[in-house]
Design goal:
This protein is α/β, with parallel strands linked by helices. It has helices at residues 45-50, 85-91, 110-123, 136-148, 163-171, 183-196, 207-213, 215-224, 239-253, 273-280, 306-315, 325-339, 345-359, 382-388, 399-408; strands at residues 5-9, 15-16, 32-36, 81-83, 95-100, 128-132, 151-157, 175-179, 199-201, 230-234, 262-268, 319-323, 368-373. It has a domain at 81-104 and 209-383: Rossmann fold, CATH 3.40.50.
Length: 412
């Protein structure tokens, strides 16, 4: 019987069976991707999807799981798509939406990948799952591992991870190891661990995990009832942008949509190797040795999925742009104060990039744009407290004093 899916190397094209444990090609060492035998997919796949609620598992026919009885879920997906009329008016654009991935169970888009990745770990009979993380991955993997009854090992760069995310990983019971090094060093360590010990690696180098993340694209199409002109998202380890693009291309191949959106990836100026490669027309990235940015979720100098990301950007006729930390923080405040949406700094990068690209005339004001905000603002609050500490007004518990204060603020 022909399997519904298989794995293929993105470089040499080598084919692997559906239950391959390794994340890399045994011939050339490059990354793998999941491919589907579209000819054996049900012809009434759309009818099946219409009967199910919005979620990752709504699209199970295009997810690489064989035993649905093993599904590990926390009801991820189905996140809101907000029409941001106030922000659109401020920026001078016609149609602007944000897909708020901070509404997922652990507060980030990573849950979409982990429901697939941890389910696959159970299918493969694994007992320990592992990852390197700047925060959100550790929180998500730890939650799904606890739900599945698996041990979880997390390697994080010491001092470069938001405490809210550390707290999540700890409360879910992960074995948290903090190293004196950056994310890229943490990933190298956990990859070595997974080759020498029976640990199942669930960073974005894992092709199965990325399949869950492509459901963001599926949901955008469902919620818009159409295809946006442009999709903008932050880029860190670079798996998400390639996953979402893959989702769009699969819908196009199935004839569900008739056009494809342009993908735009936004990086922080202090950690922007993909932006550099795109702007200089390079075939490979030049890693940033010491990445620096307040947006800890994308503080990655050597993104593991860079090759997939460059292909997604170029195939979609898209682009990559860098924004400064100040532009990120200003965009974080702008989104909160115009639309009531509170996101972590990395998630504000698409808004900062959108503003910059509109001003430069790269994005036409008549376009329909969707920004993917990837993580909840409550995960990383110390920057907000530091920035707005002087905004807290203190007075005695006296009515007249409060009235006087509010008059000085022109509120009364």
């Amino acid at each position: 019987m022909v399997s519904r899916f298989y794995l293929r190397c993105i470089n040499c094209g080598s084919i692997y069976e559906p239950n391959e444990v390794s994340c890399e090609c045994k011939r050339c060492g490059d990354l793998l991707t999941v491919e589907y035998n579209f000819e054996i997919l049900s012809t009434n796949i759309i009818d099946k999807w219409r009967e199910r609620p919005l979620s990752v598992w709504k699209y199970r026919e295009l997810m690489p799981i064989e035993d649905y009885s093993k599904i590990v879920t926390l009801n991820e997906g189905g996140t809101p798509l907000y029409k941001c009329s106030n922000l659109a008016s401020f920026l001078g654009i016609k149609n602007l939406y944000t897909k708020n991935e901070g509404a997922n169970p652990t507060g980030s888009f990573k849950d979409r990948g982990m429901t697939i990745g941890v389910t696959k770990a159970l299918e493969l009979g694994m007992k320990v799952v592992a990852c390197a993380s700047t925060g959100n991955t550790s929180a998500s993997l730890a939650a799904y591992a606890s739900k599945a009854g698996l041990q979880c090992v997390v390697i994080v760069p010491g001092g470069n991870i938001a405490l809210g995310k550390v707290a999540q990983a700890l409360i879910y019971g992960a074995h948290l190891v903090s190293i004196h090094g950056n994310f890229d060093e943490a990933l190298a360590i956990v990859k070595k661990l997974s080759t020498e010990y029976p640990f199942y690696l669930l960073n974005s180098v894992n092709a199965f995990r990325l399949e869950g993340q492509k459901s963001i694209g599926f949901e955008v199409i469902d919620q818009l009832n159409g295809v946006p002109d442009t999709v903008i998202l932050p880029v860190g380890n670079a798996g998400n942008i390639s996953a979402i693009w893959k989702g769009f291309t699969e819908l196009y191949r199935l004839g569900i949509i008739e056009k494809l959106p342009r993908m735009i990836g936004i990086q922080a100026a202090g950690a922007a190797p993909i932006v550099d490669a795109m702007k200089r027309g390079l075939s490979e990235i030049i890693p940033v040795a010491s990445p620096e940015t307040v947006a800890t979720a994308i503080r990655i100098g050597s993104p593991a999925s860079w090759k997939k990301a460059l292909r997604a950007l170029r195939d979609s006729k898209g682009l990559a742009e860098a924004v400064t930390d100040q532009e990120i923080l200003d965009a974080q405040s702008l989104l909160a104060r115009k639309e009531g949406i509170f996101v972590e700094p990395a998630s504000a990068a698409p808004i900062a990039g959108l503003k910059k690209l509109i001003e430069e005339g790269v994005i036409d004001k008549s376009e329909t744009v969707v920004c993917i905000t990837t993580g909840n603002g409550l995960k990383d609050t110390h920057i907000i407290i530091d920035r707005f500490a002087n905004a807290i007004m203190e007075v005695k518990a006296d009515f007249n004093d409060i009235v006087s204060l509010l008059k000085r603020c022109c509120i009364i």
